[in-house]
Amino acid sequence: AKRKVTFPHTFSVDENYNILRGQRDGDKFVKNCVYMADEFAADLKANHRTMGDSLRMRKIVMLVHWLGDMHCPAHVAIPVEDKPTYEETTVYNRYRLYNNGKKISYHALWDRITSILYPKRKLPAWIEAVDTYSAKQRVKICKGDANDWLDEIAKETLRSYKLIPRDTDVAKLTESQREQLVELTYQQMAYAGYRLAHILNDVFKE
């Protein structure tokens, strides 16, 4: 039987939303999605010309996956001890919400955020709505590397928790709350896309 390989798709922060970065190979905080993205990008940059097509494509697909994961509020792992309010971790689905009265996890909300916000919107319309930043803004967004982006991403997760407290029915958000949720969704999608393009351009530049 083939052995299933499971890659991490989260990164961890402490109770103050500071990023936990491991220093040893055995440290559980080392093997997070950002570590893996850096590792795959470095391997592609050094070896993509000699890799087989299948391996090269698999590594590119995982980079796409991880850049999306790291910008998703539901993929930031937060301690649960003594955290009975919005700061509870989401990755274990302890943070419950509702959508039109149906119970969903915070994780499920962000996995389905596009269909929840605009059920009938097609991909071209999403691209038009999200890709609105100037060239100068995109350069600023992509400044640094993946580790430099983590602190900002964690803070956006905190903003999301405050915007959508536990037991909220997302379908009943006020107009102001919905506008803020849409703005946050657009921002995280745009940042993930620009940064992915930035990494791939660096990997495959001549």
What does this protein look like?
With 206 residues, the chain is mostly helical. The chain has helices spanning 33-47, 53-70, 106-111, 113-117, 123-130, 135-141, 146-163, 175-204, and strands spanning 11-12, 76-77, 96-99, 102-105. Strands 1-2 form a two-stranded parallel sheet. A two-stranded antiparallel sheet has the order 3-4. Helix 7 packs antiparallel against helix 8 (175-204). The longest helix has 30 residues, at 175-204. The termini are far apart. The relative contact order is 0.15. Mean pLDDT is 84; it is low at 83-93.
Q: Unreliable runs, pLDDT <50, ≥5 residues?
A: 83-93
Helix tally equals: 8
Overall helicity: 40-55%
For the CA atoms, what is the radius of gyration?
18 Å
Strand content: 5-15%
Helix-and-strand structural type: mainly alpha
Biggest beta sheet attributes: 2 strands, parallel
Q: In angstroms, what separates the terminal alpha carbons?
A: 41 Å
Instruction: Name the overall outline.
Output: globular
DSSP strand tally: 4
Order of helices and strands: EHHEEEHHHHHH
Average pLDDT over all residues:
84
Largest sheet: spatial strand order: 1-2
Short description:
This protein has 206 residues and is mainly alpha-helical. It contains 8 helices and 4 strands.
Q: What labels would you give this structure?
A:
206 residues, mainly alpha, two-stranded parallel ribbon, two-stranded antiparallel ribbon, 8 helices, 4 strands, globular
Question: What's the layout of helices and strands?
Answer:
Layout: E1 11-12, H1 33-47, H2 53-70, E2 76-77, E3 96-99, E4 102-105, H3 106-111, H4 113-117, H5 123-130, H6 135-141, H7 146-163, H8 175-204
Parallel strand pairs: 1-2
Antiparallel strand pairs: 3-4
Helix pairs in contact: 1-2, 1-8, 2-8, 7-8
